[in-house]
Amino acid sequence: MTTTLMTYAGPVDDLAPVTRTGGVPLVPAGFTWPQCAECSGPMQFLAQLPVNVPGAQGVEAAAVAERVLSVFMCQNDPGLCDEWDPVAGGNRALLFPRAGLTHAQVPAGDETLLAETCGIDCTARDAAPYHEARGKWSEAYGRPLRDVLGQLGGTPSWLQHDETPACPSCARPMSFRPARGGTRRRDGDELRWRRLRIRLRLCAVR
């Protein structure tokens, strides 16, 4: 079994159409910046990930199905807006068609964008679970564990018990996407690591 790891790939442009954390989201026309259901403030843009909708088959179908997944989370009052809860309204994952996207108009606020924009590489490792694959990648490339930002797909690992959410539309369990996304943040002269507990799931029923 293989695990696809998301690894730090260095700084990239704020508008780069690649898998990245930070920068400015690329969005379709008519986009409205997500607001937190708890505090009503604008959420922080965390990451964008080019993906294919579940069920796409073949090269042509995959091309048509290409999407960009944009992730937002409230950071106006960390821990007080239930941003960890998948249905409380403190986070949002939006799936956009990849074609025709342009940069969003960023609302005013100190917590709408991350301090850095970092590229993400996706690397498959012949190991599971995630923590084992992460360790083998670190050994193979001679890089620190903190450069592994998370995993893409596969089987999630849980801190406590399985908390797979159900789709609010069809009530079926959602499929797994990325977990344990992270960002790097510069604090003074030292590059510090901030780890984000993110689990994204999409409904595969169409």
Would you kindly provide a written description of the structure presented here, covering whatever features stand out?
With 206 residues, the protein is mainly β. It is 10% helix and 35% strand. Strands 6-5-4-2-8-1-9-10-13 form a nine-stranded antiparallel beta sheet. The chain has a two-stranded antiparallel ribbon with strand order 3-7. A two-stranded antiparallel sheet has the order 11-12.
Q: What structural keywords apply?
A:
disordered C terminus, mainly beta, 206 residues, 9-stranded antiparallel β-sheet, two-stranded antiparallel sheet, 2 helices, single chain
Number of helices: 2
Number of strands: 13
Described by strand count, sense and barrel closure, the largest sheet is: 9 strands, antiparallel
Return the string of H and E elements.
EEEEHEEEEHEEEEE
Principal-axes shape call: globular
How far apart lie the N and C ends?
Answer: 28 Å
Computed Rg: 17 Å
How are strands sequenced across the largest beta sheet? 6-5-4-2-8-1-9-10-13
Low-pLDDT parts are 179-199, 201-206
Determine the structural class based on helices, strands and strand pairing.
mainly beta
Indicate the mean pLDDT: 79
Helix content: under 10%
Q: What percent strand?
A: 35-45%
